Amino acid sequence: MSAESIYSNLDKGKYEVIKIKIGKEGRWDWDLMKNVDVFFPIVHGTYGEDGSLQGLFELLDVAYVGAGVLGSAVGMDKDVMKRLLLQAKIRVADYVVLRKGEEHRKLKFPVFVKPANMGSSVGISKARNKPELQKAISMAFEYDTKILIEEAVSGQEVECAVLGNEKPEASVVGEIIPKREFYDYQAKYVDENGAELIIPARLSKKLAKKVRDSAKRAYLALECLGMARVDMFVTAGGKVIVNEINTLPGFTSISMYPKLWEASGLEYPELIDRLIELALERKKEKDRLKRSYS
């Protein structure tokens, strides 16, 4: 759905667009003989935003939209992501990492249980007691060999879209009020009424700036490029806690990333243009560096 949304908003007079579909069995619908100037990867989750697809583009020596191999891999692994954020002195929720057979430090209920390497809230559940926790752990291990148990943060759930390479810009801040238990896959991609999106968020100018600054700091600390959506909480005491970063955010008509930029004065087609420009700028700089040491 994200890919179709981008395709319908691309200026066909400016771009010759080639659709490449990858089936669930891994078969690519792509004529290798066609020259491609820029790839716009919009494959969510494993292999699409974990650095695997980005590594292929690096081997092909072509421009592509979004984070590189490192930023993509770091952004996908919630454990490594949080370790780097903590090193950069950016607040995260209290959490523990668990592998099969390991004991874990006790956290206060309620908690969220998450596979370390999944996107779009797949495999995530909320637990309020020990029986629910065991069930949540079992489900999360169906998706990954490493999972996170994370204390639920009480506060406003906010998101900020970031755009750029070495000097990123942050959008206005948006607020999410889930109508479901939490902002899950259905609310993000399927159910238009699954969450209420408030843009701009109900924050003071000072707090909104703090959120935007935190988003940019997280973006740079995690080696992101091109684009990312940073998900955060703002507590009653005014603390900003980074939940996670999404290096390949949703791009459907109800997705927060394009909505935030639209509210910031950058319409959907212009946003796509800018992302393609950033990809080409990065490729040009890579080529310059190659010439300098070749």
Strand and helix map with partners:
Blueprint: H1 2-9, E1 21-22, E2 28-29, E3 38-39, H2 52-60, E4 63-64, H3 69-76, H4 78-87, E5 95-99, E6 111-115, E7 125-127, H5 130-140, E8 146-151, E9 156-164, E10 169-178, H6 185-190, E11 195-198, H7 205-221, E12 226-234, E13 240-246, H8 256-263, H9 268-293
Parallel strand pairs: 3-4
Antiparallel strand pairs: 1-2, 5-8, 6-7, 6-8, 9-10, 9-12, 10-11, 12-13
Q: Please, how many domains?
A: 2
What is the count of helical runs?
9
Instruction: State the end-to-end distance.
Output: 42 Å
Classified by CATH, the class of the largest domain is Alpha Beta
**Named CATH topology of the largest domain:** D-amino Acid Aminotransferase, Chain A, domain 1
On the 0-100 scale, what is the average pLDDT?
A: 91
The CATH homologous superfamily of the largest domain is called ATP-grasp fold, B domain
Strand order within the widest beta sheet: 11-10-9-12-13
**Sheet having the most strands:** 5 strands, antiparallel
| CATH-derived architecture of the largest domain | 2-Layer Sandwich
- Looking at the structure, what is the overall shape? globular
| Strands, count | 13
Helix content: 25-40%
Derived structural class: alpha+beta
Model regions low in confidence, pLDDT < 50 over at least 5 residues: none
